Amino acid sequence: MESRRGNSMTEEEYSEVAATRRIQRLTSHISPAVATQPATTSVVQTETCAARTKKLEVNGQALSLYMRGKHMDIQEKVYEFFNSRPDLQTPIEISKDDHRELCMRQLYGLVREAGIRPFRYVAEDPAKYFAIMEAVGSVDMSLGIKMGVQYSIDMNLADFWVYHRRSNVQGLQTTAAFDPIKDEFVIDTPHDGAIKWWIGNAAVHGKFATVFARLILPTHDSKGVSDMGVHAFIVPIRDMKTHQTLPGVEIQDCGHKVGLNGVDNGALRFRSVRIPRDNLLNRFGDVSRDGKYTSSLPTINKRFGATLGELVGGRVGLAYASVGVLKISATIAIRYSLLRQQFGPPKQPEVSILDYQSQQHKLMPMLASTYAYHFATVYLVEKYSEMKKTHDEQLVADVHALSAGLKSYVTSYTAKSLSVCREACGGHGYAAVNRFGSLRNDHDIFQTFEGDNTVLLQQVAADLLKQYKEKFQGGTLTVTWSYLRESMNTYLAQPNPVTARWEGEDHLRDPNFQLDAFRYRTSRLLQSVALRLKKHTKTLGTFGAWNRCLNHVLTLAESHIESVILAKFIDAVQNCSEPSARAALKLVCDLYALDRIWKDIGTYRNVDYVAPNKAKAIHKLTEYLSFQVRNVAKDLVDAFELPDHVTRAPIAMQSDAYAQYTQVVGF
Amino acid sequence: MESRRGNSMTEEEYSEVAATRRIQRLTSHISPAVATQPATTSVVQTETCAARTKKLEVNGQALSLYMRGKHMDIQEKVYEFFNSRPDLQTPIEISKDDHRELCMRQLYGLVREAGIRPFRYVAEDPAKYFAIMEAVGSVDMSLGIKMGVQYSIDMNLADFWVYHRRSNVQGLQTTAAFDPIKDEFVIDTPHDGAIKWWIGNAAVHGKFATVFARLILPTHDSKGVSDMGVHAFIVPIRDMKTHQTLPGVEIQDCGHKVGLNGVDNGALRFRSVRIPRDNLLNRFGDVSRDGKYTSSLPTINKRFGATLGELVGGRVGLAYASVGVLKISATIAIRYSLLRQQFGPPKQPEVSILDYQSQQHKLMPMLASTYAYHFATVYLVEKYSEMKKTHDEQLVADVHALSAGLKSYVTSYTAKSLSVCREACGGHGYAAVNRFGSLRNDHDIFQTFEGDNTVLLQQVAADLLKQYKEKFQGGTLTVTWSYLRESMNTYLAQPNPVTARWEGEDHLRDPNFQLDAFRYRTSRLLQSVALRLKKHTKTLGTFGAWNRCLNHVLTLAESHIESVILAKFIDAVQNCSEPSARAALKLVCDLYALDRIWKDIGTYRNVDYVAPNKAKAIHKLTEYLSFQVRNVAKDLVDAFELPDHVTRAPIAMQSDAYAQYTQVVGF
């Protein structure tokens, strides 16, 4: 970030500040004592805004306690273990093969030396499991994914899910035929086209694979066999002692990827591989010794749905881990932007680059979004944990839609933000040591695996449309979109021309207005998509109509997810008991809400939900809130409690190391 | 791209298509003979839109000739050379050090073996030079940058420019003191804070550096010396024979970067390094044997401006090369999306994923933008070449602003598009061999070097505001924004409420409407920024006011650049003589224009330039044009003439190799 030149309006001669003076200032700037003094606010903007509000003094401890909750301890344990073991830290430059080996050693270290056993928590305390995954991911995202593949059946299945899905899951061709004589299943991949690729852990380290295959049972009718649909089986792929590939199993290495090269992805083909009958994962369907099939679920479709339903944990994990990546990235970019100084008014010290409106514009709505997604994914994990305990049907449906929506929405946002953070840090963002490159490359695929984001958003919209239809047939709505039940009729009326002109700050910062705006948009989109689909289905058929409305459908899904995120954020603000922490949260919540409304202002204007004067007021307030958030940005970032040895980027060091770094790189 | 499931509206059972049948279809799909038959258009959408238009048959040869012009031959020569030398192709996995060595060998190969001498063209035929750079960049972007640093004085200076600028260029502290006794300059870096980092080619291979330093001359007054301001000097840094670092020169390696690791960036520090007087680059100021200073330019500021003005070539090169990267990326993603098939209406063959509206939405406006930026940067190169010949002052100013604007606008767009392309290709986009990872990592820094994009946009806006001010004082406007002269008053009047409601396709596709919309927005933004700056300057001072309006300023700059791009695109359509090529260009030009208007529809609605019915019509037409462009997407991409051995990504292969690949990866 620099100022501009060569213009009559901008021809000030900026005062020169010697390097030593800069370092002194930097050092004072990063001293914790200074952080709470109003003096850290830039001269320029204090002049502008001091009259409107006094700087908020945030109780950092209360805020971080409220944010991080009960799983802080285990995360600290992960951080401390890797901090104490430099030999287990991933170097900047490492070959694919070395990275795979290191990643395996990291995992062994975590389990055997640090004594952290993630597998234990997968079922009994998922929130703790995801907290470990987040912490481990901050060490090396490959390790996070490797752990997921190794320890969670969900993740392992998920690798199949993505690629099965691609080849039309219900039509997948791998078979598991029961042999009643030997009491075994025989697994077969019928041809090259049915090979499953990109299976994590398969190329080098895996001993078992969880395989989706059509269960084939012998019958006494003319066909001789019966296809019971897709089931999951545990198939050994390598010898437990020699680690040799087992007979009939063919493994190919998927090679070098854009990121996550610590994970060894491979392709598997089976040629008459025999496994014991017990290796069928029999929760939704079982085969007896004499080849009789039993299931609590009546149809192939129901069983298939239930089997796939187990995959939801992978999406919950990715959404949660993606917020973790966003926290690291935003922390590095914001800490750097607070420390880095450049130019300033004539005869005055240089200002932090975070004092530039353009830098606030890049980073402050991002910080607000990070908080928003934090609370939304914490809520998702709670619901998921509850679901794992109760198996309540409505809750299953709810978690399914919510995990699909949050996974796609959050991972897309984080992916874009990683680029924004790199750019916001200029040339230093491009030094590999400052981590944006590897974070982006590793996180990138979050948008695709466990279901492509574009596909998942369609599932969200499809679910919403189904419920909309049921509503008109007198049915009920699941919890996540129950807001539509109450409000649909209200929202579909013409907007009130009086409130459309209200532009006061109190009104714009009222959660009722914000929620109303989000839900109004979702309701309108839901109704208009439903009508368009109905119309086009007559001429184009279901497939053609859906495709004709696809962009519209995706917009609906995003709008709905944003509504859910805001509602959870507003709850989180209200539930925070410490006043200064609550005030800080309220600030970022308002910024999140108004920034989103402004980003889609065209839609609001088109239906006159917002009049021109109000649109202008929203824009102005968004810029003002970005400035307000800038003033507590340090507190907000510190509440993530990411120590220097976790963020690791030299440009974001809070100790003297930063001053040393800036001196070396020639500021 | 997949369809959706689990919804009553979407419960078709898709027909199973065996792998062999798929490959047959794929093979027929990629046969050139098929490409011009209407049958390639998907069944679904033909039904929808066949009534409105018949498929355009594009004369591909005419289109590519019009696009690529006279520098095709030398680009082919580059492509062929590297195709014939597998030993010079960059492998997927390579260490930093090996990459640096390989990159040097690639450069030697290009110059010594292929006999291509880029340096010859830097001054005498810049268009040819940039064409070579584009071609070389498609082999390995590190090579493109290495070549630029090695062969172009502009680029070499540029490395200094970026980092000097960061430390306040006019205040840079390195000195070149003239020693009249020995007839030499003595170069000194006064302290660590003045070390220049990130200099391309410095860490390993460079023999010389072009150094910016303050020229210090001895005087007879009491001060004893006189500071003549910043000048450029050629300083040898390594011995020509032994390659040892020369005495007084200290070099540090900048290490591993996010991308471009074939380029060896380093830091330089000088301790009393002596160079002959002749090593002063004396175009704008010279020193005689007896220490007398002469210059055609009267002030330090003027000379400084002229010296920096030489750097514009680097920006022209980056804008041009960035379009080259965008072409490769869009080609890979679109060819893959045409070949890859997934799902479809019941009982019908699967459709290409480019038949999905969401995929069109991702890729077709991007293809249109690629064409838009192609013509804009070709125009920039023409103007730059003219400037290098005539040194016309108005042209210099014009090229300066245009290169700053296009460099920032185009590189930001390409950076985002690389991520979109990766996502559009799903899991296969994540395989390193398919290139999105390395293209993105290499291109990323284009947004930062040669001037950070946020800074360059401010320069554009500052220049625009300066001219706006002069206009009101009776001055003239330079060529690039001469449109404002004619239209400012018209545009600032209230929009016409009648035309604001016109929604016919002929009207929306009329270049006059499109240009008017772009220019209207720019004019409004220019006036409103000027007024706001004036108002705020009174209370906040120049610096504070500029910062207070910074987002507004950046929007103005982008809007202006978009206006220029559209105007050039419209010219390019009109100048194309072959009717089918012109029709194809008109299609993408309309998509470019309307997509941009739709993206900022809030602004247009807020001032009632566009009524709600027109906004809706624009949106609808944008989707329809995306579909139309999809039907000629193959022709449009083929016109870039990027053969398989240049794109290299297996997923985009046009030969049987693709069918083999799809078979192997298990479609």
UniProtKB/TrEMBL annotation, chains A, B:
Active-site residues, as the UniProt record annotates them: E450 (proton acceptor)
Domain Acyl-CoA oxidase/dehydrogenase middle: 166-273
Subcellular location: Peroxisome
Domain Acyl-CoA oxidase C-alpha1 stretches: 309-464
Keywords: FAD, Fatty acid metabolism, Flavoprotein, Lipid metabolism, Oxidoreductase, Peroxisome, Transit peptide
Swiss-Prot/TrEMBL catalytic activity: a 2,3-saturated acyl-CoA + O2 = a (2E)-enoyl-CoA + H2O2
GO MF annotations, alphabetized: acyl-CoA oxidase activity; FAD binding; fatty acid binding
Cofactor: FAD
Pfam families, per database record: ACOX, ACOX_C_alpha1, Acyl-CoA_dh_M
GO biological process terms on file: fatty acid beta-oxidation using acyl-CoA oxidase; lipid homeostasis
Domain Acyl-CoA oxidase C-terminal: 510-654
Binding of FAD, residues: G200
Record's keyword annotation contains Oxidoreductase: yes
GO cellular component term, pick one: peroxisome
PANTHER family: ACYL-COENZYME A OXIDASE, ELECTRON TRANSPORT OXIDOREDUCTASE
Family stated for the protein in its record: Belongs to the acyl-CoA oxidase family.
Protein name as catalogued: Acyl-coenzyme A oxidase
Species this chain originates from: Arabis nemorensis
High-level lineage: Eukaryota, Viridiplantae, Streptophyta, Embryophyta, Tracheophyta
